[in-house]
């Protein structure tokens, strides 16, 4: 199950968001168009769902409105096709469109096309996250879920980097010492124990490896942020903002 999820994340984040948006300029019936559109929807529905839940909607209503938003606005009104990286962040574009959609949601009619379909498992995973974020406003929760999605993308890229460069043990050490305790609540393994299991000379070597991975991960997170912004000042500001959000969520 874990391996399958990792492969899914890797496939989802293998292409930058703006590269996917560019693919939407092609014919709608093409496979590349459909895959790009669905990849973008898969990336960005959790922040939308989180915003709706924190705005007071029940899980069923939030799931329904989320699916309606992607059907009516993203698919039918071609939201991503209207995106311009020189004018606005994707995050800003999506939440502005979502707020407008919520105002007149009762007047919307569902389009008769294939759209995002949320399963009970999808909703359950998001509910688990929401239960730990009870004090956040809808806008703050949207931003936090957005930051988590970008972090997931950076993590996938980071793992790919170390495995492809023959340093899989560096990545495994980081997972066991940092990722698993942060994400799954497991105990952080002693570095002496990891050194023996992963083939490091000693605990100091493990510590050095952890530092190297952390530095690479933060650099990749900035790259991911840059994929969603074009202006250098915007990249710096967005990176600082998302880094602060992520540090508060741990």
In sequence order, what are the helices and strands, one letter per element?
HHHHHHHHHHH
Q: Termini, distance in Å? A: 24 Å
Report the β-strand fraction as a percent range. Answer: under 5%
Q: Could you list the spans in which at least 5 consecutive residues all have pLDDT below 50?
A: 1-15, 109-114
Major beta-sheet overview: none
Global morphology: globular
Describe the protein's architecture and organization.
The chain has 250 residues and is mainly α. It folds into 2 domains: 15-132, no CATH class; 136-250, no CATH class. Helix content is 72%, strand content 0%. It contains 11 helices and no strands. The protein has helices spanning 2-12, 17-23, 31-54, 59-76, 90-103, 120-130, 138-164, 168-184, 191-198, 203-227, 232-249. Helix 1 packs across helix 7, helix 9 packs across helix 10 (203-227) and helix 10 crosses helix 11 (232-249). Mean pLDDT is 78; it is low at 1-15 and 109-114.
Task: Give the topology, please.
Elements lengths: L1 H11 L4 H7 L7 H24 L4 H18 L13 H14 L16 H11 L7 H27 L3 H17 L6 H8 L4 H25 L4 H18 L1
């Amino acid at each position: 199950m874990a391996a399958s999820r990792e492969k899914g994340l890797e496939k989802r984040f293998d292409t930058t968001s703006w590269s996917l948006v560019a693919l939407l300029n092609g014919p709608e019936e093409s496979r590349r168009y459909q895959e790009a559109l669905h990849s973008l929807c898969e990336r960005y529905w959790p922040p939308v769902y989180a915003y709706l839940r924190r705005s007071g909607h029940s899980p069923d209503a939030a799931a329904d409105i989320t699916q309606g938003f992607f059907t009516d606005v993203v698919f039918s009104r071609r939201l991503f096709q209207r995106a311009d990286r020189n004018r606005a962040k994707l995050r800003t574009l999506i939440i502005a469109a979502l707020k407008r959609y919520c105002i007149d949601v009762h007047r919307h009619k569902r389009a008769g096309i294939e759209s995002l379909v949320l399963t009970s498992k999808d909703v359950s995973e998001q509910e688990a996250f929401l239960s730990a974020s009870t004090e956040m406003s809808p806008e703050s929760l949207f931003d936090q879920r957005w930051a988590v999605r970008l972090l997931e993308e950076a993590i996938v890229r980071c793992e790919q980097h170390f495995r492809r460069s023959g340093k899989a043990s560096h990545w495994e050490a980081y997972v066991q010492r940092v990722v698993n305790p942060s994400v799954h609540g497991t105990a952080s393994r002693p570095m002496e124990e990891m050194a023996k299991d992963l083939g490091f000379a000693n605990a100091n070597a493990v510590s050095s490896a952890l530092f190297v991975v952390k530095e690479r991960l933060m650099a990749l997170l900035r790259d991911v942020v840059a994929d969603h912004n074009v202006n250098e000042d915007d990249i710096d500001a967005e990176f600082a903002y998302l880094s602060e959000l992520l540090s508060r969520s741990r």
